[in-house]
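User: Can you predict the 3D structure for this chain?
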Amino acid sequence: MKKNLGTICIHGGWKAKKGEPQQLPIYQSTTFKYETSEQMARLFDLQDEGYFYTRLANPTNDAVAKKIAALEGGIGCVLTSSGQAANFYAIFNICQTGDHFITSNTIYGGTFNLFGVTLRKLGIECTFVDPEWDDERIEAEFRPNTKCFFGETISNPGGNIFDIERFAKMAHRHGVPLIVDNTFATPINCRPFEWGCDIVTHSTTKYMDGHATQVGGCVVDSGNFPWEQYADRFPGLCTPDDSYHGLTYTKAFGKMAYTTKLVAQLMRDLGSIPAPQNSFLLNLGLETLHLRMPCHCNNALKVATWLQSNDNVAWVNYAGLPDNKYHALAQKYMPLGTCGVIAFGLKGSKEDAVCFMDNLDFISIVTHVADARTCVLHPASHTHRQLSDEQLREAGVAPDLIRLSVGIENVEDIISDLKQAMEKVFSK
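Assistant: Here is the predicted structure, written as structure tokens:
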């Protein structure tokens, strides 16, 4: 039977059999026993499915991966040790030295650095484009060696909405997949595959966990991109892999080629896996994701409305506001709500912004975001401090931008805390 997302959040991925635990167990083991050498050999040759070493597969990890794949409407999911690892694997699985890809310039600062600095050291070039540019200007950046287009459903920290359908069509016109980081929206509020996206990534550290208990990420494949139609562009998937006796992933695994290669090659060689304990904690968070996201969104809309009416606030960017420039896109892709993250700026100096944050009571100054607790950050001073002023402008990060992640506490208490902190700054 077809299940709703709330049911999948609780029951997806693990179904207890007679005498088995109702809750997903933690398979805290590095290795798994077999009775014959031939059984083990077939696993290493990808001829049989099973577990033999947790770096490649673990029952706890796999159950959670299946749940996330079901929530996104994908055919396969691979868990990673962090959201950064997920974005790296998603790109590196189809790019190699000499290749190129395109990304929105409004992405998270850490990902901006990963793409613009670290991948460049590996010989993979990235072009940053402004999603506000017209199609002609963006499409001029595609090259014969371009392998994908990347964006974030809701940009971190700016809160801009990515036009998924527009960029999916654009990517497909050039024979490449669209990869979307869906961390802030989560599959509860947005399912990018339904709008033409091919691959989704998440930092599961954020809303999926929801309680700041584990660091993790995931890569989800829709199974829809026709890799063999562009076989010359994607040799890693469409030509024999010498490290697996000449196996060709698209021929051997069909729609599962992308995720199988990601595990068989990248996890085998780089090993960015989550611990089973972390996956267990992530699963607990997923069980309430469908309940928490509406609360985050409802609280955030009330807070954003209050901020917009406050004389000490210079600007507010929250797509849930009816007069926001991204409101129409938000209604298209996320009619139930966007997320709990608000970007805003105070009237005054950078020092005023710092003073405001320092005077908050229970709202915490932390690097983290998308948590049950309300938290705040000044990106130009913290998460994006490695970027130059020019790069900050390119990424849409203003010097006065404050990122407020609205939690699920009582919203009146959240507003009261913001109010008293502002009064201490502006009553001088």
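The chain has 17 helices and twelve strands. Residues 201 and 219 are 5 Å apart (CA to CA).
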